[in-house]
Amino acid sequence: MPEQRNHKGRTFGRRALLGATALAAAGSTALTTRTAQARPNDPTTFVLVHGANGNAASFAALTAGLAAAGHRVLPVDLPGHGPQGNFPLSYQAPQDLDGFATAPSPVLADVTLADNVRHVTKLVRRVARHGPVILLGHSMGGATITRVANEVPDLIARLIYLTAFCCVELRSVVDAFLTPEGETTLLPTIPGTGDPEQLGVNRTNWRSADPEFIDAAREALAADYDKAAFRAALNGFEPDEAAAVATDDARGHPGSWGRVPRTYIRCTADRAIPPALQDRMIDEADAATGDNRFDVRSLDAPHLGPQDPAPLLRILTRLA
């Protein structure tokens, strides 16, 4: 499996990763004036940020449930995802696996974590005019929401990490996987394709019919899903993820990010981000901001969250 180097020269399989600007003074003043128009009793807006290989549709069930409970919901397509996603003809059936391994990824190959942060920050600025914003990140989406909170902490009522990366001492997503707590992840067992060094993306053939591939992916991501539910999830994944997002600096700053109230939803059956790694990130964040500690909730669920979203919806609606 091709390897990816982090900033210290250590290696980690690129395909194992799922699961990215400071205000000018005048812009900050204008923004404060606009957001002051929002009233505390205005409906909360949940801004939902997907992880690697995901898109806004990854939150379909959650979006429907939150909206039905009376909340405003904005699921985000990060740059190069959703309508901008890369789906080469070789990815369609009948698949041309050789062609798929070398097909370019014209948008995602150049995407960085900073691009994700700019995109989500812009959306947060817009929706904060209408009421409180709760910013949720799943998996690698946690790196994006942390950096957004560095930029606009006063526009975010709460950060929610759904079995997500929260880097404070650890520099990046890759560095988190290189810890003793991250070494049991099953993500490296999911085969990838192509050369990330040439493509600029980590590429996975989620449409593979190989039983060994499907079993490995299910064990890593959603071991307790029934087979039909997991196949439905597979069909929503995108084949490419920007390689740079996992190695870019994802650390939260105690003076900005550290001021925002935050919740961590632990998924105790997660085999992609092991519970021990989730707990390490929680502890390091709490140590950096002793007067603003994580509100921690736990779900008996795998990396993709519970197959039935009801337990997760109960947590989110209470937080709102």
UniProtKB/TrEMBL annotation:
Record keyword Nuclease present: no
Domain AB hydrolase-1: 46-306
Swiss-Prot/TrEMBL keywords: Signal
Family annotation (Pfam families): Abhydrolase_6
InterPro entries: AB_hydrolase_1 (IPR000073), AB_hydrolase_fold (IPR029058), Sec-Metab_Biosynth_Hydrolase (IPR052897), TAT_signal (IPR006311)
Gene Ontology molecular function, alphabetical: catalytic activity
PANTHER family, alphabetized: AB HYDROLASE-1 DOMAIN-CONTAINING PROTEIN-RELATED, ESTERASE_LIPASE_THIOESTERASE DOMAIN-CONTAINING PROTEIN
Record's protein name: Esterase
Record organism: Stackebrandtia nassauensis (strain DSM 44728 / CIP 108903 / NRRL B-16338 / NBRC 102104 / LLR-40K-21)
